[in-house]
Structures are given as structure tokens and as C-alpha cells.
Amino acid sequence: MKCVDRDYVYRVINDIKEALKLIYKITGASIDVFISDLGLRYALRHSIIVIVEAIADLGVHILEKCYNLTPGSYGEVLDSLWRSGVISYNTYSRVYGLVSLRNRIIHRYWTVDDKKIYLDARGSGVKAIEEFIEEVENFVSKDP
């Protein structure tokens, strides 16, 4: 008996990949274009929120179905995924940074540094998301 609903998992992963496509497009623009375009800045913020929400939903699904765990926060979701062996510590720590960023965007949007978000997304942020997807797909493929 398999523990996850694979259709659900791949739908959520597809949502993450769609948001990643938008991030690739946005970060393909120069920093000057990005900073001068409010629409691009808000689109990047929104994409990060969508990705973190999807990661949390996916994590809760895996943890509830496979480990009978019900984490109470985004951080607990990631911690439990790492401790359960679903994701590596490296991925856990990098994606955890995105959770912190999501919280700043949601709760203190007026203090968000869009230039830093752009540079982080263009650098390690996208890589962390790609690694998360790969590790979850590997986990799901091993689910009997």
C-alpha cells in the first residue's frame, strides 16, 4: 500500500515548477529593470509565497500519510521532512531560508528588500527549490 497520493504530489510539484518558471523569467531581467518595475517585484514576491505554501502543503501530505505526523508550522514541516529522511539537511536548511523570506513578505512587506530577494532568487533560492523537488520525487518513487 502506498502512503502518498501520487497524483496530488505531482500536481503540487507542477504548481511549484510553474512558479519557478516565472522566477526564471523575472530573474532573467537585469536588476535595474527588476527594481524599476513594481509588477516584476510583486510577481517575484508572490511566486515565493506560492512556492513556500506548496512546499508546506506537500510536506504536510507526506508527513500525515507516511509518518502519522501533523506539524504545526512551516518550520516544523521542513524539520520533520528532514528528520524522516525525505529531504537532506542541506535542502532543509536552504528551503528554511525561503520560509523565513515568505514570512517577511507576508507580515512585514514594507521592510522587504526587493534587490536582495532578486539576488537570492537568482542565486541559491532557485537551486534550493529544485533540490527540494528532486528529493521529494525520489522519495515518492520509492514509495511502494
Explain what the structure shows.
The chain has about 140 residues and is mainly alpha-helical. The chain has one domain: Four Helix Bundle (Hemerythrin (Met), subunit A). Helices cover about 80% and strands about 0% of the residues. The longest helix is centred in the middle third of the chain and has 30 residues, at about 40-65. The mean pLDDT is about 90.
What's the overall average pLDDT, rounded?
A: 92
Low-pLDDT stretches are none
Number of E-type strands: 0
Order of helices and strands: HHHHHH
What is the end-to-end distance? 6 Å
Helix content bin: over 70%
Radius of gyration, in Å, reads 15 Å
- Contiguous helical run count: 6
Give the amount of beta strand, in percent.
Answer: under 5%
Helix-and-strand structural type: mainly alpha
What's this entry about, in short?
It is built from six helices and no strands. It has a single domain, classed as bsu32300-like (Four Helix Bundle (Hemerythrin (Met), subunit A), Up-down Bundle), CATH 1.20.120.580.
